[in-house]
Amino acid sequence: MPEKMSDDMPVLMENLTDTIRKIFNETLITDIHTHLYAPSFGNLLLWGIDELLTYHYLVAEFFRTTEMPYSNFWNMSKKEQANAIWQALFIERSPISEACRGVLTVLKQLGLDTAERDLNAYRDWFAQQSIADHVNRVFEVANLKAVVMTNDPFDPNERDFWLSPAEIDTRFFTSLRLDTLILRWVEIYTMLQAWGYTVDKDLTEETLSEIRRFVSDWIQKIKPVYVAVSLPPQFDFPEHSPRGIIIEQAILPVTKFFNIPLALMIGVNRNVNPELKLAGDSVGTASLRPIENLCEKYPQNKFMFTMLSRENIHSACVTARKFRNLLPFGCWWFLNNPSLIEEITSMRAELLGTTFIPQHSDARVLEQVIYKWEHTREVLIKVYTEQYSKILATGWKLTENEIKRDVANYLGGNFWKFLESKF
Ligand code: RAT
Ligand code: ZN
Hints:
Blueprint: H1 16-26, E1 29-31, H2 49-53, H3 56-63, H4 70-75, H5 78-91, H6 98-109, H7 119-127, H8 131-142, E2 144-148, H9 156-163, E3 172-173, E4 176-177, H10 179-183, H11 185-194, H12 205-222, E5 227-231, H13 242-258, E6 262-266, E7 268-269, E8 282-283, H14 289-297, E9 303-307, H15 313-322, E10 326-328, H16 338-352, H17 368-392, H18 400-420
Parallel strand pairs: 1-2, 2-3, 4-5, 5-6, 6-9, 9-10
Antiparallel strand pairs: 7-8
Helix pairs in contact: 1-17, 1-18, 3-5, 6-17, 8-17, 12-13, 15-16, 16-17
The structure holds D-arabinaric acid and zinc ion.
């Protein structure tokens, strides 16, 4: 009798890069933080070349090239803005920044010819796509299984959807984003009053109980995979401030009750240049103590976190080593550049092994998932070839299925398992 062939294969040093490339190319991704919407949200789902060109990352780069008054730009139509950005960043200069190259990667991966430099031809192509087929195609090209949206109950456009929700494409998951509730209580408590919650400006016992009811209602309404908030570098915990009290007495009990993580995105200084609107936010280095305090004081709560400042990444890895209820994710926003993804992922792999989520896309425009994942994948292949080759060099044996298991965990499994875990 011939020996039964195993479908698992040993991985040899000489085939390592090819094997890792193949595995990354075949593993479907869960993109755990985006600003995309399912097609049933209508106009909220942004797509197409004009949206790609007017991405706020490119708006910031555009204003570095021009003396145009800010208001002139904001008064233009979307198409005119896209024309101006195309002219300044792609024609009058070479599009080598990460955000510019991203547009080129998208065009290339969708089969368009970047050598033509014909913006109107690209527009025509996008105009011919039906959104349902286009979403399928983008998911396929980007290798995506699922994306998590960012859902804000204070956003008037989104609120309308949730008041009479249509069916949501099952590849799109929700997250409950509570920046407005947590960071702007004094300005917005009257909105909760108008929605039937008995709250006051002062965070009395009754008000906190009503905030808990509000958060619970939204969790039950939209069924988020996590609750999220972005925070400035000065964030502290515990903190005797509205945000500190709301987090501790309203958010933590509710997320614990529903056993869903609170995702903390720390290090953003909002609006340092208001003229730039969405593009006007900046970065600051934060302390890791507040996160350590949260995890230590609330061991049965689950936390995910990402930091915006490069300077915070090393201490963030050390903090994550201390708490199993804390899951680091992504190279956020200004860190989502290949040189930094390489540094950050290597550091995380060395300090945390396979127990983190290397990346999320933060895509705001549908097709951006193509470039954000393509560029990240290239870096991950390089980083993991190096990490696995170092253990092969000791004589350790690896099989393809073992690498597949690890990659599947990185690109989704770690997230889904964390959601299921209960401490
Ligand atoms: O990356 C971005 O597009 C930023 O504007 C923010 O949305 C950031 O990712 C956030 O979620 O606050
Ligand atoms: Zn984001």
